[in-house]
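Consider this today:
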Amino acid sequence: MSKSNQTFLIARTLSDVFYHLKNVNELQIRGGGTGKIPFAEKVLAVSSIPELCTIEKKERFIEFGSAVTLSRILDVGRTNMSPVLYDAIKTIANESVRNVATIGGNICSSAGQEEMQKNTLWGPLLALGAVLEFRKKPNDSKMIPFSQFKEVPEGYLLTKVRVPQNESEVAIFKRVGPSRRITEDSASFVFLADMENDSIASIKIILAGPIVFHPVEIENQILYTKLPLTRDFIEKKVAEAESAYDIKFSGKYKKRLLKIQFLNMLRYSFEQLM
């Protein structure tokens, strides 16, 4: 039997992490370790660090340490966070996996390449305007809006996930693809809308899976539209969304079935405003 060349390290404090990041080349950070990404030769486990396991609820946002498990987030309760975040987590795997899987792992394991399959929380965090905190050492940190997040900055550790408290009047999360697991056919759909003076005051439309689709132009066109929406208006905007989807994605990234599912979910969401 051949010997394994893998080295597994366990960090107990953030200082441990900063030391290893500085002194160990090609170090892979792992949280719960439930993802499908293969273990590297040098692995550092961070799920035991107290500072990364905190949950802090403020008036305008709730902040999760990157090593907070998905089960602990559910324990906070649906009424104490944005419903689309709670509903998304409920669809992830099963209770046993959620007891181990972390919010940081769900984010980072689908980062790095634009065409990489995005995990379940990508859609809700993008729609809600989440902000990620990365740290390299005690006095060296970066705050990156989720909308600008592509990959973990070199030499940094994801330490906190700040999620604005969102109380949208219409808040819809739908997941497509196989139940309880992520495949190339999986995607998260999020629709948020607020009303003011019988018109649409804010709106977010997100699809995240093998592709990420955020039709900002269509959102802007819908702002201040008078309610209730008409059937003709809905069908017009669904057609415009289809056109925007086709322009942005082509070939293997077009995902015809995913497009059909997206358009059906978009139509359903608009119908809640009729």
